[in-house]
Each structure stands twice: as C-alpha cells, then as structure tokens.
Design a protein that fits this description.
single chain, Jelly Rolls, 12 strands, globular
Length: 238
C-alpha cells in the first residue's frame, strides 16, 4: 500500500509539472531577432561584415540591403551579429508578424555609431533608426481598420559606445486584423555610419492573472491519492 500511495502522489506531481512546462513553452513572435541565422551557405567570420538582400525572417524593403556586422565596430548585445542599415545608403528591413488581439511590447537594443564630436564637426547626423508596427490594411468590407504604431531613436555617443534598450508598447484589437509588418529603417546623412540594432523581440503583455480551473484529470488523480490514503488508514486501524 505504501508503494501505491507513492505512485499516486508521483502521478499527481508529474501532471502538475507537465502543465507548468507546457504553459511556459512559447515560440518567439519575432524570428531571428538576434540576426544570428544568415541562411544556408552564408558564413560570416569574426571582424567581418556583409550586406544581404534578405536573411531568414527578414527582407529588404528599400536601399542596398541588410548589413550584418560581426565584431567589426562593437560587440553584439546578443550573440555575435548585429545590424546596420546605412551601408552604401540608407536601407530598411521588415518582417511579417502574426498577432492576436491583445497588448504587446516591442523591444530592441540600439547603439549609435557617430560621436557627438563628429556630428558637431561634420554634421554627421546619421544614427537615426525608424521603427514601426503596421498592418497596411483598410478594408471596411472585412471590418479591418488601418493600424500603425511608429517611433524613432537618434543618439550620439560621448564617452563610449553602449547599447541602449528601446521599447514601444502597443495594443492590437480584433478590428486590426492579424498580419502586421515590423519595420526598421535608417535615416539621416548617408555616410556608411548608421545606428546599430540587435536582439529584437515582441512579447505579449500578460493581463492580470485569473484563477485557472483544475483540470478534471487532475481532480481524478487527487481523488485517487486521497483514496490511497483512506485505504492505508483502514489497514492500519485493522
């Protein structure tokens, strides 16, 4: 009977643990947000850079392409690769996201390349990065409303190059559809010295948690465990 009780409790623990693990496993909304995956046959060594028309999950919208750097000017915030969108001229890149109605936060890390002294001496205002979430839709027949959330960042470094976290909160309604474009673009003087971008993510902002009903299967296991305890008690009394 002691073994039966142990088995019952073990089954209860396994169900609880499995439910917890399943709840925490979630695929990232933004794919290849740290730009470490360059595609089959695309190899970038340390202290190298290259301009790509497209990389997995990202495509060029305008300009020469997506410049990936690997330790050429700075260390990446995540992994070894980061993006610069001012290669031969300003470029923009985009990725399509599927977003259900809810609250979200866009986050990425940004680093300016041009110093404040370069800006003062040469008017090299080249560090600007535009970023946006846009569904590009306006369809009354299907009740889809136009949606756009955008912002920008432009900094100059003074004492040293450092990564800065940038966030943008936004909400998606049922009327906004489900397909959205996440876009980054360089702006400012074209001089091959744009701002850097790394570790891009979009996460759902969880609402206030509400009590979750216990699954019927878990209730059966609990009742089974209680039955084991009752049987054990009767045996001891007899």
């Amino acid at each position: 009977m002691k073994k039966s009780l142990t088995l019952c409790l073990l089954l209860v623990f396994m169900v609880v643990a499995t439910n917890g693990l399943c709840a925490n496993i979630d695929s990232p909304i933004v794919k290849n947000g740290d730009f470490e995956t360059l595609g089959i046959g695309n190899v970038l060594g340390d202290n190298q850079w290259k301009v790509y028309k497209n990389i997995p999950a990202w495509e060029t919208l305008s300009g020469p392409g997506i410049e990936i750097q690997r330790g050429t000017v700075a260390d990446a915030k995540s992994g070894k690769n980061y993006v610069e969108l001012d290669s031969n001229s300003n470029s923009s890149m985009s990725q399509t996201l599927f977003l259900a109605p809810g609250d979200y936060q866009l986050a990425f890390w940004y680093m300016p390349r041009v110093t404040i002294n370069e800006y003062k001496n040469n008017n090299d205002n080249a560090n600007g990065i535009n970023f946006s979430i846009d569904n590009h839709e306006y369809d009354h027949d299907n009740d889809i409303e136009s949606f756009n959330k955008e912002s920008y960042i432009n900094r100059f470094y003074v004492d040293g190059m450092e990564w800065e976290k940038v966030t943008l909160d936004f909400a998606v309604s049922e009327e906004s559809g489900t397909d959205f474009d996440l876009t980054f673009g360089a702006y400012g003087k074209v001089n091959s010295k744009g701002g850097f971008v790394d570790n891009v993510s979009v996460t759902a902002v969880a609402p206030t948690p509400t009590p979750t009903p216990i699954p019927s299967s878990l209730l059966l296991l609990f009742s089974g465990g209680a039955g084991c305890l009752v049987l054990r008690k009767k045996k001891v009394m007899n």
